[in-house]
Amino acid sequence: MEKKEKLHVVFIGAHPDDEGFCSGTLAKYAKKGHKVTIVSATKGGRGHYEIPTEKLREIRMNELQNVARILGTEVMFLDYVDADIPPPSDMKDDFVNLLRKLRPNIVITWHPYTDRDDHRNIGQVVYDACFKSSLPLIMTDDSFIPLPRIYFIGEPVYPSEPDVYVDITSVINIKIEAVKEHKSQLEEWIPWSYEMGTGGKIKPNLDQIIKYFVKERGRKFGIASGVKYAEEFRIIGAGMPKIKAKQLLPYTITF
Ligand SMILES: [Zn+2]
């Protein structure tokens, strides 16, 4: 019988709810028996209007730990500061060390041309550090890794279509359950910030946020790829083949 390769899939986000863009995909990998690790570069200490930063960090770490339990993944936190993630070049060697320790086959992170600096900086440093981690002549405590496949979440600031879709229909309820764990965001921070931003006109509740962010978004990319619900990814680099919409991630073709 053919022996299936066990992969290590590593998602690296800036904040403890960023994985919500791809938690269906992460759940699918985990269900298939692959190792999945969610890394949050910050503990998310700034996403609230009244809970002090230290307390908020504890709450949000707890929320992401609950998410990881639901998805069947590992979770780890780095010590960068929410809304103050440094420029990529200042973090590059830390991420080389991290990647060489985790030794991923697949990396999922933010697209380096998204609109928010924390996301952008993480996307760029992860992309750059993946390449640097693969260079044997750069010696660190852990040895070099083969260049992992890298998939990006989020929309770039320029017009572009996704390159890869993953069918998440079978795990949509797991995704909804997982996203709902971010109570400090979905029940408090997001409704409050919408209310402030619209002069009191819009204040979405939890169900509306789930409907928009998980169901309608999943459906939109599902329609684009011929399935019920999908998550979308982009790829960068001349060496990466463009993949037709109906195909899944090359490593997940057996889904
Ligand atoms: Zn974020």
Strand-helix topology:
Elements: E1 8-13, H1 23-31, E2 35-42, H2 53-71, E3 74-80, H3 88-102, E4 106-110, H4 117-133, E5 149-153, E6 164-167, H5 172-179, H6 183-197, H7 206-225, E7 230-233
Parallel strand pairs: 1-2, 1-4, 2-3, 4-5
Antiparallel strand pairs: 6-7
Helix pairs in contact: 2-5, 3-4
The structure holds zinc ion.
Zinc ion binds at residues 14-15, 18, 119.
CATH domain class name: Alpha Beta
> Strand order of the main beta sheet, please?
3-2-1-4-5
Largest sheet composition? 5 strands, parallel
Element pattern in H and E:
EHEHEHEHEEHHHE
Number of helices: 7
- Structure summary, number of beta strands: 7
Please, what is the average pLDDT? Answer: 91
Could you give the distance between the termini?
A: 18 Å
How many discrete structural domains?
1
Q: Which blocks of ≥5 consecutive residues have pLDDT under 50?
A: 243-255
Radius of gyration: 18 Å
CATH architecture type: 3-Layer(aba) Sandwich
Which small compounds were modeled alongside the protein? zinc ion
Look at the helices and sheets and give the structural class.
alpha/beta
Give the CA-based shape.
Answer: globular
User: At the fourth CATH level, what is the homologous superfamily?
Assistant: LmbE-like
Share of residues in helices: 40-55%
**Strand percent estimate:** 15-25%
CATH fold name? Rossmann fold
